[in-house]
Amino acid sequence: MADDHILVERRDNVGVITFNRPEVRNALTEEMWERFPRLVKQAAGDPAVRVIVLRGAGEKAFAAGADIRELEDALGHPESAIVHRARVEAGMRAIEDSPKPVLAMVAGFAMGGGCRLAVACDLRIAADNAQFGIPSANLGYVLSSECARRLMALVGPGRVSQILLTAQPIKAQEALQIGLVEVVVPLADLEHHTFRLAEDMAKLSPTSLATAKELIKTLARDPDMSAISDPTALMRRCLESPDFREGVQAFKDKRPPRFGAQ
């Protein structure tokens, strides 16, 4: 447990990070933004953790963006807005840089910074009551280029225009249709479905998962691979790993693989 506002636990091989301010829809304070990257890095560095789940406490919100009581101080001046943006970016970058897959378990509102964190995750599992939005146009604000890049990679320019230029929330089923989330389940099934998926993923090769994350991130930034000097490097990393030997042997033995800690 980190503090009352962000809870950290481990369920077998699944690390869980929970935004814990349900009375204000898990609104994110500046202190939470500042602490969050370190908590992700700690979970990612735990050899027992294979997958990380990011969630909000309760059923009404994943995270409903910035704490309104801090909003004027955070965005009221260009200098403070730049500091705030850097904190938000550090949080998303920690998710993106984690070698362990990060799943967003989204119930209720994922707005503003909450939506941006969900977009930075590797997979998004949403309850049927989920709503996503980035209402920056209501504040006279704009996304960073890195946030826009991540969002664009998921839904394309037309839908990014819809999200940013209308400032309207997108409900779960529409989010599924446009590729903003990968799965929508009934609210009552959300926790069971998310943790079953996380546990299944935790049985897979850590080397393969980490390498696949790096491959996806690289291609998202460089689709034509012009900056990749050795296109075989990631494949060789897997082929030379103990995980590959164990996977092949398990296939020959007709048994589930037993992958060691990364």
Folded structure, characterized:
The strands form two sheets. Strands 1-2-3-5-7-10 form a six-stranded mixed β-sheet, sandwiched between helices. Strands 4-6-8-9 form a four-stranded mixed β-sheet. The longest helix is centred in the middle third of the chain and has 22 residues, at 145-166. The chain has helices at 30-45, 68-75, 78-97, 113-120, 145-166, 172-178, 190-202, 206-221, 233-239, 242-253; strands at residues 6-11, 14-19, 51-56, 61-63, 102-106, 109-111, 123-127, 131-133, 170-171, 183-185. The chain folds into two domains: 6-201, 2-enoyl-CoA Hydratase, Chain A, domain 1, CATH 3.90.226.10; 205-253. The chain is built from ten helices and ten strands. The chain has 262 residues and is of the alpha/beta class. The radius of gyration is 19 Å and the shape is globular.
